[in-house]
Design goal:
This protein has ten helices and 18 strands. The chain is α+β, with helices and mostly antiparallel strands and 362 residues long.
């Protein structure tokens, strides 16, 4: 199996307005309870934090889920009856904004998870095709929290590069090398072990693009819990906490104004795609078209936070490459349509005009 090792790829999370809940019947009372559970899951998915459910505004909405419900239905999956509920996404976001809670957009970083587990008495690295309860729990927790997780295939290439002792020992250089063939933004190393009547676990997260030579964890967490299910839940919660801190933004009350120029636009279809993408970014409060000339489009943006927050989101999009503007005024290239020209200016001039962020659209 050959996996691409090119630029890291973020994942676009869909279905942010819906959730599935297992029920035992179609009775009205059970449906009401299931709708509350589904709406709670949707609020968590759009913010990344379970704690948002403690806010009074969110509690009010969860207690009356019908006010945000757009449709629901039942389906039979194997032996289970599933209630699928869809809610008004705009009102979900407006509630989070009104409560000054973080909002996490659709574009989210992809994390490669290397996990050491015990399976039928043997230690092994969890593989994508594994049918263990832990593998299923990872899928469930990642879906509920809206975290894109990639599990290694553990084919011959992986087996030749990495061993279970490398994961258990957190040998980051070895794991980083094994991660290169996977297109992910981050990689995490986790280990779970039964100790007496408890499960001891640890997890560390790393930036896959780190080229400094010394690989330090962005976060590290370890604890003892009652069972493997709780350990898996805490591992995913730890990862979610970091990503929410980096990529989900609440309204700071200060509206930063900036410009964003995108180079390489070849069609109106691309323009429509770009505008839809920008409007769902959690750092952007409002957007207006400033100029569309030749192959370059420029937008005026109002942000919830600072420009660095917007850049975090733009930099995980596989279709974008940032171009260095420096202290320069941007002039679109009307001939080649591939790269911009920069006219160096005295930085004291035009101080009232923000220097735009400039990205190449691929």
């Amino acid at each position: 199996m050959s996996l691409p090792s090119a630029k890291a790829i973020s994942a676009e999370i869909g279905l942010l307005d819906e959730a599935d809940v297992v029920v035992t019947s179609r009775a009205r009372k059970e449906r009401q309870t299931a709708l509350k559970e589904a709406l709670s899951a949707v609020f968590v998915k759009n913010s990344g934090l379970v704690t948002v459910l403690e806010h009074p505004l969110v509690k009010t909405q969860v207690n009356t889920p019908e006010t945000l419900l757009t449709q629901y239905g039942y389906s039979q999956v194997d032996d289970e009856l599933i209630l699928k509920a869809n809610f008004d996404h705009k009102r979900i976001i407006s509630t989070l904004r009104e409560a000054d809670l973080p909002v996490w957009g659709r574009q989210r970083p992809l994390t490669l998870l290397w996990m050491s587990i015990e399976n039928e008495g043997d230690r092994e690295i969890l593989a994508d095709a594994s049918e263990t309860e832990t593998r299923l729990q990872i899928d469930l927790a990642a879906k509920n929290k809206g975290i894109p997780i990639l599990v290694p295939v553990m084919d011959l290439n992986d087996i030749m590069q990495i061993s279970v002792s490398d994961v258990r020992g957190m040998f980051t250089d070895v794991v980083a090398d094994a991660s290169k063939r996977y297109r992910a933004d981050y990689f995490a190393i986790a280990d779970m072990d039964q100790v007496g009547g408890f499960v001891r676990f640890q997890v560390s997260l790393f930036d896959k693009a780190n080229e400094s030579g010394v690989i330090q964890p962005l976060i590290h967490h370890q604890a003892e819990v009652l069972n493997y299910e709780e350990a898996t839940e805490q591992i995913l919660t730890t990862l979610a906490g970091y990503f929410v801190n980096q990529y989900a933004f609440s309204d700071s009350g200060n509206s930063t104004q900036t410009q964003l120029s995108l180079v390489g636009i070849q069609s109106m279809a691309q323009l429509v795609e770009i505008e839809a993408y920008l409007r769902q970014l959690s750092a952007i409060k409002s957007i207006s078209l400033s100029q569309f000339k030749a192959n370059t489009v420029t937008y005026n943006l109002s942000l919830f936070g600072g420009t660095e927050d917007l850049q975090k989101l733009l930099n995980i999009n596989k279709n974008l490459t940032q171009l260095d503007s420096g202290n320069a005024e941007f002039t679109p290239d009307n001939n080649t349509g591939t790269m911009p020209k920069f006219d160096n200016l005295d930085p004291n001039l035009h101080s009232d005009k923000p220097v735009p962020l400039i990205y190449q659209w691929h």
